[in-house]
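Subject: sequence -> structure tokens, single chain

Hey, anyone have a minute? Need the predicted structure for the following. Not urgent.
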Amino acid sequence: MVKDKKIVLARTKVYGSKLLLIDEKATLKILKNILQGPETIVFIAHNWSKELHDLFDREIYLQDNK
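Reply:
Had a minute. Here:
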């Protein structure tokens, strides 16, 4: 599974994607690496830790399917 994610991330770099959608299964090491790039990252998570909070500029919460 991790290998598949690395392949997807590599493809986004090759094709020059400006937006990356990342789910909570990405490791902190991978997140820290991709956050160094110029892309906009949308990180989707059910569990939000202090460590994740410190990595990102902005948080958007969705509740009750709204």
